[in-house]
Amino acid sequence: MRLHDHEIVSTPDLVHRLVAAQLPRWAGLPVRPGPAGGTDHHLFRLGDDLLVRMPKIAWAQDQALADARWLPHLAAQLPVEIPAPVAVGEPGEGFPFRWSVVPWLEGDPASPEVLGARGARDLGELVAALRTVPTAGGPVKEGTSRGVPLANLDDDVRAAIRASGTRIDGPAVTRVWDAALAARPAAEPSWLHGDLLPGNLLARGGRLTGVIDWGAMGVGDPAADLIPAWSLPLADCERADFRATATAGLADPDDAWQRGRGWMLVQAVIALPYYWDRWPAFARAGQARIATVLAD
After folding, report:
1. Which of 18, 65, 68, 193 maximizes the CB count within 10 A of its CB?
2. Which structural domain, as residue segments, surrounds residue 77?
């Protein structure tokens, strides 16, 4: 089943033909399905050390160029590995979008078992490190993308609350959302990842080792990167460690935390009605995150 109505489905054969035609130095490497992709890319292993990212849908078609432009800039200044592209492919063989080849990063998707208390601090330190990267010339968040003022998403969130019906506690979610809107806005924009969900975090030996899928990156409200506090099932002490490290140095840590709760609702609530039948596991995970926000 396709995730989106206008999804472009890629196959290992298509990837092999594109690589052979455009990147002949890798033409002899085997292509096989990679790990399950997220909402906007199909993933394929290319040999042992590379990964091919194939956009599923038109809204992801600019990510290959954005990654190639900005991930090397970020990678040089962050404490974990990130998959800066080593090549960008052009449309071809009937495939309409640019695509990219990135390094394969070792690690397991984040969970309390593989991340641990030290890993939670690592994650907080990553969020804080992003705020130190110079923003000059960076892609400023606008419209309703992650990192804009939360008020830009007010209509969408309230519509999603109504559409979710009894799947969530609508009045309680609305109260948390109102509190997030009432928080002071960010003192200054900074770099952010924008999608620090567990599947985008890699860990080994209890430490955060890598962060993948930078499609939502840009310059905006740093509170958008506080969502691991509610998207990861952290123990209270681990959440406290993450909060302390991730908000260190902010002029408005309490307001940022309230906005962070709002950003978790933005991701979870808006996704819920859309993915309820298309990707049930993703929708149920969103329900669990909403419950964690309400309990915080």
Report:
1. 193
2. 12-103
CATH no. for residue 119?
A: 3.90.1200.10
CATH number at residue 17: 3.30.200.20
Question: Does 92 fall in a domain?
Answer: yes
Q: Is residue 71 part of a domain?
A: yes
- Given a contact cutoff of 8 angstroms between Cβ atoms, the answer to whether 244 and 261 are in contact is no
**Cα 77–chain centre separation:** 19
Q: Each residue of 231-274: pLDDT tens digit?
A: 988 888 899 999 999 999 999 999 999 999 999 999 999 999 99
Q: Strand 201-204's sheet: what is its strand order?
A: 108-109, 201-204, 207-211
Query: How far apart (Å, rounded) are the C-alpha atoms in residues 258 and 255?
Result: 5
Q: pLDDT of 146-178, one tens digit each? A: 999 999 999 999 999 999 999 999 999 999 999
Strand residues in the chain grouped as ranges (E): 31-33, 41-46, 50-55, 87-89, 99-103, 108-109, 190-192, 201-204, 207-211, 218-220
User: How many separate domains does the chain show?
Assistant: 2
pTM of the model: 0.93
